[in-house]
Q: What sequence folds into this?
C-alpha cells in the first residue's frame, strides 16, 4: 500500500530527484521485495528519463547509493570517451543525382535491346572489327602522329589521308571494303580536338571532344612500343543506358579474344562524364600485386552527341546531344 | 556645274578623299560604284561625270550608268539595267548600252562582269561540296571543362582502378592457367588454422592455471630430453592421465614457443621465405589435431 502510494507520488513528482531518493532511503528498511519493485520502477523511470534530459542541477555525486552512483559515473565517462562516429565524407560521386536510366544488371529490357542493337553482330561474334582512321583536312604533325599511334594500338586499324573527301562519300566505300568502324580525328590549331566514331554498317555515330592528348614520347616512364597482340579491354563506370551504349561502342573496337600473352590492356574509364583512355602493359608480381606500365598514347574524351545511323549532321536523328544550358547547370548530374 | 578636273584636283592625288585607302605602293577607292577599285583619274566615280559600272546583287548582275545630264538629280543619277544571266548575252547587252561610250569604261565593265560570273560559278560549286562549320568556343566554358577534367582525373584514381580490375580478373580465373599462383588460397587457409589453434591454446592455458599443477620446462629445453623424463614420471606412479595431460601441456607449450619463435623468424625474413617454415609448420599440424580434442571438452564446460 505504502509502496503503491509512493510510486504514484513518485510518478507525479518526477522532477525532484532528491525527494525520490530520500523516500527510497526510508523504504530500504522495509521488505526487500518493495525495494526491488521500486528499483525496477526506478530503473524504468530512469530509462525514460535518460531519454529525456536530467535537470541541470543534477550531478552524479548526489546519488546516495554507491553502486548506482558508480554505474552512472562510468556511463558518463564512457559517453565522453566515445568519439562521435566517423562520418563518410561527401564526394561528388556520393552526391550524384540519381539517374533514372541507370542500368540494372538483371534488366531484361536492356538485355533484349543489347541482343538486337547494332553491336549484336559483333557481340555474337559474327564480325571482326576493322577500323579506318582518318583526320580532317590538312592535318598537322601532331595529329598525324596521334593517328599513327592509335593505329598501332588498335589491331586491324588503317590510317588513310583525307584528301578533302566528304564523309558521306567515304562511308559507302568503307562499307564496301568491309570496315566496321570509321574514326575521324578533327584538328584545330595543330592539335587534335575532336573525334567522330562511326560504326559502319548502319551504326551509331558518336562525336567526342578530345583533350589532354599525350603522345608516346611525352610520357614519363613508359615502356616499349605496343606489340601486335590483341589487348584486353577494361570499361569502368558506364552506368546509364547512354553510358552502356557508348561502352559497347568502345568494346566493339577491339577484337573479341584478347591475347593474354601480350599482357596489354586498354582502359576506358568514365568519371563524371569524362572518359579517360589509357593503354598499359601489366605484369602480375604475385597474386596480390600487379605492376602496370603505361605505353601508348593517352587522351580524354567527352561525349558531345550520339546520332543514330551513320554520319549525317543535317538530317540525322540524334539520340543524345549535349545541351550546355540544360545539362551543365548542376554539378552533381552526369549522363554517362 | 560639273567640273571634273576641279573635283579631281580637290580629291585626287595627294589630296583627301574619304573613299581613298592608301597603302605603300597604291591607292584604292572604296566607293561602291568604282569599276576598278583603284583611285585613278579615270576610275574615280566622283571625278567623272559619265561613268558606268557592273555590280552584282544576290547572284544577278546589273549595269549602272551615270550621265552628266542627271548630275543635278542625285536620286536619279544612276541608271540600273539588269543584265542577262547568260554571259555572252550580258556582254552584248553591255555593248548595246554603252555604245559610243569611251573605250576604257566599256572594257572595264566587261572585265568586271567576267570576274563576277567566275566567282558566282565558284560559289555554286563550293556549296555542293563539304562546308566547314565554325563553332565558337566560349572561354568560360573551356576553362570550366578543363578544371572539371582535372578534378575528375584525380577522383578517378586510374592506376588503382586498373590494378583492382586486373586482380579481380585474375581471381575470377579469366586468365586460366597462365599464371600459377594457386598457393594463395591455401596460404590463407593455413593462416586461419594457425590463428585458431593459437587462440585455443591460450584458452587452455588459462583454464589449466586455475586448477591443475604443471611442471614447466625451461625455454631452452629440448624435446629429446623429455622422453627420459616421461619414463621416469610413468615409473613414479601418480595418475597417468594427469601426467600425460601435463606432459602434453608442456609439449604444447614448447611447441607453441617454437612455433612462435619460428614465426618471428619468418616475419623478420620477409614474405617469400615463408615457404620453408610453412612446410615445417605442416609437420606440427599433426600435433594440433591432437590438441583439438581437448579444447572441445573445455569449451563445453564454459
A:
Amino acid at each position: 500500500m505504502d509502496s503503491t502510494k509512493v510510486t504514484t507520488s513518485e510518478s507525479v513528482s518526477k522532477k525532484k530527484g532528491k525527494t525520490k531518493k530520500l523516500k527510497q532511503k526510508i523504504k530500504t528498511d522495509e521488505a526487500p521485495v518493495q525495494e526491488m519493485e521500486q528499483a525496477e520502477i526506478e530503473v524504468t523511470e530512469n530509462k525514460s528519463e535518460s531519454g529525456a534530459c536530467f535537470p541541470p542541477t543534477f550531478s552524479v555525486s548526489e546519488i546516495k547509493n554507491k553502486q548506482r552512483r558508480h554505474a552512472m559515473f562510468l556511463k558518463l565517462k564512457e559517453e565522453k570517451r566515445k568519439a562521435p562516429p566517423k562520418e563518410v565524407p561527401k564526394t561528388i560521386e556520393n552526391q550524384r543525382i540519381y539517374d533514372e536510366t541507370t542500368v540494372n544488371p538483371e534488366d531484361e529490357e536492356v538485355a533484349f535491346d543489347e541482343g538486337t542493337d547494332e553491336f549484336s553482330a559483333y557481340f555474337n561474334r559474327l564480325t571482326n572489327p576493322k577500323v579506318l582512321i582518318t583526320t580532317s583536312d590538312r592535318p598537322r604533325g601532331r595529329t598525324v602522329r596521334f593517328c599513327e599511334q592509335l593505329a598501332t594500338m588498335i589491331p586491324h586499324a588503317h590510317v588513310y589521308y583525307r584528301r578533302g573527301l566528304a564523309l558521306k562519300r567515304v562511308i559507302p566505300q568503307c562499307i564496301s571494303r568491309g570496315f566496321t568502324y570509321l574514326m575521324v580525328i578533327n584538328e584545330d590549331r595543330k592539335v587534335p580536338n575532336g573525334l567522330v566514331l562511326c560504326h559502319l554498317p548502319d551504326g551509331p555515330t558518336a562525336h567526342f571532344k578530345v583533350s589532354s592528348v599525350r603522345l608516346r614520347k611525352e610520357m614519363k616512364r613508359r615502356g616499349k612500343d605496343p606489340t601486335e597482340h590483341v589487348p584486353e579491354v577494361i570499361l569502368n563506370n558506364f552506368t546509364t543506358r547512354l553510358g552502356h551504349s557508348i561502352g559497347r561502342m568502345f568494346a566493339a573496337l577491339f577484337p573479341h579474344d584478347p591475347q593474354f600473352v601480350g599482357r596489354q590492356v586498354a582502359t576506358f574509364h568514365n568519371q563524371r562524364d569524362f572518359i579517360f583512355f589509357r593503354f598499359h602493359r601489366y605484369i602480375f608480381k604475385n597474386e596480390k600485386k600487379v605492376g602496370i606500365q603505361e605505353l601508348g598514347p593517352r587522351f580524354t574524351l567527352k561525349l558531345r552527341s550520339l546520332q543514330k545511323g551513320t554520319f549525317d549532321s543535317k538530317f540525322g536523328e540524334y539520340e543524345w546531344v549535349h545541351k550546355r544550358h540544360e545539362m551543365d547547370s548542376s554539378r552533381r548530374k552526369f549522363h554517362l | 556645274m560639273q567640273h571634273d578636273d576641279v573635283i579631281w584636283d580637290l580629291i585626287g592625288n595627294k589630296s583627301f578623299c574619304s573613299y581613298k585607302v592608301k597603302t605603300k605602293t597604291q591607292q584604292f577607292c572604296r566607293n561602291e560604284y568604282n569599276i576598278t577599285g583603284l583611285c585613278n583619274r579615270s576610275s574615280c566615280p566622283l571625278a567623272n561625270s559619265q561613268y558606268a559600272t557592273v555590280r552584282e546583287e544576290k547572284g544577278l548582275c546589273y549595269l549602272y550608268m551615270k550621265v552628266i545630264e542627271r548630275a543635278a538629280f542625285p536620286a536619279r543619277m544612276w541608271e540600273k539595267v539588269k543584265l542577262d544571266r547568260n554571259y555572252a548575252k550580258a556582254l552584248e547587252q553591255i555593248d548595246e548600252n554603252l555604245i559610243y561610250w569611251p573605250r576604257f569604261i566599256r572594257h572595264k565593265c566587261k572585265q568586271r562582269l567576267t570576274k563576277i560570273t567566275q566567282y558566282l560559278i565558284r560559289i555554286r560549286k563550293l556549296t555542293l561540296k563539304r562546308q566547314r562549320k565554325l563553332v565558337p568556343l566560349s572561354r568560360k566554358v573551356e576553362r570550366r571543362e578543363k578544371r572539371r577534367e582535372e578534378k575528375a582525373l584525380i577522383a578517378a584514381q586510374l592506376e588503382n582502378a586498373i590494378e583492382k580490375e586486373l586482380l579481380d580478373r585474375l581471381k575470377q580465373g579469366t586468365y586460366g592457367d597462365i599464371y600459377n599462383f594457386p598457393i594463395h588460397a591455401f596460404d590463407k587457409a593455413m593462416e586461419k588454422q594457425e590463428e585458431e589453434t593459437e587462440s585455443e591454446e591460450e584458452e587452455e592455458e588459462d583454464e589449466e592455471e586455475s586448477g591443475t599443477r604443471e611442471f614447466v620446462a625451461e625455454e631452452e629445453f629440448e624435446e629429446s630430453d623429455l622422453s627420459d623424463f616421461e619414463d621416469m614420471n610413468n615409473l613414479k606412479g601418480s595418475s597417468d592421465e594427469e601426467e600425460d595431460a601435463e606432459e602434453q601441456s608442456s609439449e604444447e607449450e614448447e611447441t607453441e614457443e617454437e612455433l612462435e619463435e619460428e614465426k618471428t623468424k619468418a616475419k623478420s625474413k620477409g614474405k617469400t621465405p615463408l615457404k620453408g617454415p610453412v612446410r615445417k609448420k605442416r609437420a606440427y599440424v599433426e600435433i594440433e589435431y591432437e590438441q583439438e580434442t581437448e579444447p572441445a571438452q573445455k569449451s563445453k564446460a564454459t
Remarks:
- The radius of gyration of chain A is 35 Å.
- Chain A is about 30% helix and 25% strand.
